[in-house]
Design brief:
Helix content is 18%, strand content 45%. The chain is of the alpha+beta class and 340 residues long. α1 crosses α5 (130-143).
C-alpha cells in the first residue's frame, strides 16, 4: 500500500475535508484511502496541533513527510517560520490554501512572493475543496513515485515515538518507517542502547501485515527486547553483518555522531548568525538532539552533541537546525560530516 505522508499547518476543519481523523494527540493524523492499479493508495496527513507554541511536533511531521500542505489565514511571523521550516526540510512540493477568516483578506501575490523567497516556488495554490486537494495530492504522489520506491529499497531506519506493553502481545513500538523495509521475524537493533529484538508481528492501519515499508506508520511487536532500551528518539535498524565465510560486511545503516562538522545552509529569512558557544537543536529522522557550536572556521562549523545523533550512512537526509530563542526559530539545514 503506497503511502504519501503530508506535513500540514492548518485547521482541523480543512484536514477533515481531505481525510478522516484517526489520532488526535499532540500530532493529529488523518487518513484517506483509495483503490489504485496496484492496490490501495493512502494519503496520511500529519498535523502538529500545538504549533507554533511547540516546535518539535512540527519538526517530526516534516521529518516523516514527503509533501507539504499549508492553510494561510493571515500573513504573520508564524507563516514566515513555517515557510522556512518546509524549505529547510526540502519539502519543495506542496499545496498552499489561502483561507482568511470571513470579512478579512490575504494578498495572494504577497504570499506567492514569500513562497518564492523561501525557496518554495514549485508549491501550487489550491482551494478549500477537499476533493480537489485530494486529487492534487495524489498527483504529487505520482510525481514522486520513483523517490518513494527508492526509499523503500534503502537500508531500514525506523524511529520510534511511542512504546508500551500490551497484554497478550508484549512490548510494542510505534513509529514511521523512514527508509527501507521491515518484515515479520526480522532481527533489529535498538539505538542508542544497542539492544536487540525480533519483529514478532506488524500492524499498519490497524491491520496485521507481513511487511512495512518506507512511509508506513507501523506498530511493531518486539520479541526478546527490553523496555529500558526504548525511549524518545530510539531508532530501529538491521544488525550489522560480518560473515568471513562469504566475505560479507554490512555495517549499521546509521552512524552515531557525537561531534560533527557542518556548513549551514542558512534560511533566507534568518538574520541571526551562529557563533561559537551557541546552542542549536538538530532534527533528522524524528530525532531532536541538542548541540553546542564548538568552533567556527569560515563557513565550516564543528558541533558537539549532548547525546548521539544518528545520521544515515547512505544518502543522508539534510539535518534541520533550530535555535529556540531565535525568530524564526529555524536556522536552516546542513549535511553533517562525522568527526572521529
Amino acid at each position: 500500500m503506497p503511502v504519501l505522508n503530508i506535513a500540514m499547518i492548518g485547521s482541523d476543519e480543512l484536514a477533515r475535508e481531505i481525510a478522516k481523523a484517526t489520532d488526535q494527540r499532540d500530532v493529529h493524523t488523518y487518513v484517506h484511502k483509495e483503490p489504485g492499479q496496484n492496490g490501495p493508495r493512502i494519503l496520511s496527513i500529519i498535523r502538529p496541533a500545538k504549533y507554533p507554541e511547540r516546535l518539535r511536533p512540527f519538526l517530526n511531521a516534516l521529518s516523516a513527510a514527503r509533501i507539504g500542505l499549508m492553510e494561510i489565514t493571515e500573513v504573520n511571523a508564524t507563516l514566515g517560520e513555517a515557510l522556512v521550516a518546509f524549505a529547510s526540510a526540502n519539502l519543495t512540493k506542496g499545496i498552499a490554501v489561502i483561507n482568511p477568516p470571513q470579512g478579512e483578506w490575504v494578498d495572494e501575490e504577497q504570499v506567492k512572493m514569500l513562497f518564492n523567497q523561501a525557496g518554495l516556488k514549485d508549491w501550487t495554490f489550491g482551494s478549500t475543496d477537499g476533493i480537489q486537494l485530494r486529487d492534487t495530492l495524489y498527483q504529487h504522489m505520482d510525481d514522486i513515485s520513483e523517490q518513494l520506491s527508492a526509499s523503500a529499497e534503502a537500508p531500514l531506519v525506523l524511529p520510534i515515538d511511542q512504546y508500551f506493553n500490551v497484554k497478550g502481545i508484549g512490548l510494542v513500538a510505534i513509529g514511521y518507517v523512514q527508509s527501507g523495509t521491515v518484515k515479520v521475524h526480522d532481527d533489529v537493533v535498538l539505538l542508542p542502547a544497542n539492544g536487540t529484538g525480533n519483529a514478532k508481528s506488524l500492524q499498519v492501519m490497524d491491520d496485521d501485515v507481513p511487511v512495512a515499508v518506507a512511509g508506513d506508520r507501523v506498530g511493531l511487536a518486539l520479541r526478546n527486547a527490553k523496555e529500558e532500551h526504548l525511549g524518545s528518539g530510539t531508532l530501529l535498524v538491521r544488525p550489522a553483518v560480518e560473515d568471513k565465510k562469504t566475505n560479507t560486511s554490512i555495517p549499521l545503516a546509521v552512524v552515531a555522531h557525537h561531534r560533527s562538522s557542518m556548513k549551514l545552509n542558512r534560511s533566507p529569512f534568518q538574520k541571526r548568525i551562529l557563533a561559537e558557544g551557541d546552542v542549536v537543536h538538530a532534527s533528522v529522522d524524528l530525532q531532536f538532539v541538542v548541540g553546542r557550536i564548538a568552533s567556527i572556521d569560515g563557513e565550516e562549523m564543528q558541533v558537539n552533541w549532548e547525546s548521539p545523533l544518528f545520521i544515515r550512512r547512505e544518502n543522508p537526509e539534510a539535518t534541520l537546525l533550530a535555535q529556540l530563542d531565535s525568530k524564526p526559530r529555524i536556522m536552516g539545514n546542513a549535511i553533517l560530516t562525522h568527526i572521529e
